[in-house]
Amino acid sequence: MRNENVLKVEAIDLLLRTFGVFETERFIASIKNNNFDYTEWYKNLWKDRPVNEIHNMAAEFEKEKYKIS
């Protein structure tokens, strides 16, 4: 299990590699400025998607993450 500081560094690194500096700053600002409620956001994240679509997305993510052929 990662400690909180390592988790933060890895998360910021991932955001920077994925979105770049400007979009990462926008993302962080939007969470800080809007009293972001992660639990409420997460509850509604996949509500309109069928289970098989979520499964396929997860399988594709794993395939890319581990480069499974």
Structural class: mainly alpha
Structural domain count: 2
Rg calc: 15 Å
Bin the helical content: over 70%
> How many helical stretches?
3
* Net shape: extended
User: How large a portion of the residues is in β-strands, by DSSP E?
Assistant: under 5%
The biggest beta sheet, please? none
- In round numbers, the mean pLDDT is 87
Secondary-structure element string: HHH
How far apart lie the N and C ends? Answer: 28 Å
| Spans of at least 5 consecutive residues with low confidence | none
Total number of β-strand segments?
0
Key traits:
69 residues; mainly alpha; 2 domains
What does this structure look like?
This protein is mostly helical. It folds into two domains: 1-36; 37-69. The protein contains three helices and no strands. The chain is extended, with a radius of gyration of 15 Å. The mean pLDDT is 87.
Summarize the structure in short.
The protein has 69 residues and is mostly helical.
Please write out the topology.
Elements: H1 4-33, H2 38-44, H3 51-66
